[in-house]
Amino acid sequence: MEERYRSRNLWSGVLFGLGAIAFFDEVVFHQLLRWHHFYDLATTDIGLISDGLFHAFSWFATIGGLFMFADLRRRKALHWTRWWGGVLTGAGAFQLYDGIIQHKVMRIHQIRYVENVIYYDIVWNVSAVLILLTGIYLLRKSRKQNGSRAGEA
Amino acid sequence: MDHMHVHGSALPLWPQLLLALPFVLLIAGYGLCLYFSARKGRTWPVWRTLFWFAGCVFALAAVAGPLAVEAHHDFYVHMITHLLLGMLGPLLMVLAAPVTLLLRALPVTAARKVSGILKWRIVHLLTDPFVASILNMGALWVLYTTPLYSGMHESNALHVLIHAHVFIAGYVFTASMISKDPMPHRPSYLYRSVALVLALASHGILSKYLYANPPAGVPAHQAEAGGMLMFYGGDLVDAVIVFLLLRQWYHAARPKPHKTPQPVTG
Q1: Contact A14, A90 (CB under 8 A)
Q2: Is residue A21 part of a domain?
């Protein structure tokens, strides 16, 4: 795999993963379950800004990641392992940032408005770490495959 | 439906007519350009014409008629008209490529004059994605976080000026991102993308800020409903703008079909 396509596979995956998990968060936790609140009175100013920036960027990243995916396909340079590694790394990293920084430090909103929210926090962040580690594992694996499976699509 | 009045005064007819007139003229003007362009034997996609018409009708609905009158009292309805006048209408109208049609319709000498205007430094400055974003988003921040919003309900002149600005700034902003009309010195896709993401972020932050901090005279429940509508409605229109910008980038970055020998340049 050419060097520039290696990083393009990675970034296409990371952007799409980050955007997709943010979209999932919006659809499932805000709209379907209605656990997350649109606005929480405990939100700090920096939390509002962080939320706004990540929300806008995740819209852009979802669509941008998919266009990069389409670009890799038309160049016959798509590497599935590396791409999925990127997706899970991006999704896990954002989930962890959301779970630790945005929920707990900036207090944008809690996962659910119940007494034992700590259990929700644990499940949320442990799953984020697992997704992230799986992504990193796939990325390391794709590094070893480098060269031998170039251009696989 | 809650009919809580912000300041009690109703919206008179004249500001509605004054704001409606330009859009009526724009519909007629587009039709006239179509006629002259067709006389030269040029074809024009039907969907562009439909987009222009639809965009003008959405803008008209926002500035005149029952929706505009109701928007004067109710922040939630105001936000519907804001989305129509500042986002959806401009998006559809930008996609109708009016400048391209105008250049086709005009005689050569007049078309050259129009092209000349497009090269003016001021046009270049105003259509810079960052400048356009600041004029668009900055004005909204000023409108909703200062007494300007309540002032708009007391002064009809202010009402007309603010609505004209919302449309023009929305149009220039959208055009600076995705217009297919001729624009000399088009900034790079990356530059446009960064400006777009920052503008979208600013829109989302303002929506949530308004949810918690209603403009003077707006009841809390209207601010909450209006803020959420601004957030999600904005997201939908913005997703289309993001998609179209990135699709243009995707097409521009397509691999060359044949490797032709070319001199290496920086």
Answers
A1: yes
A2: yes
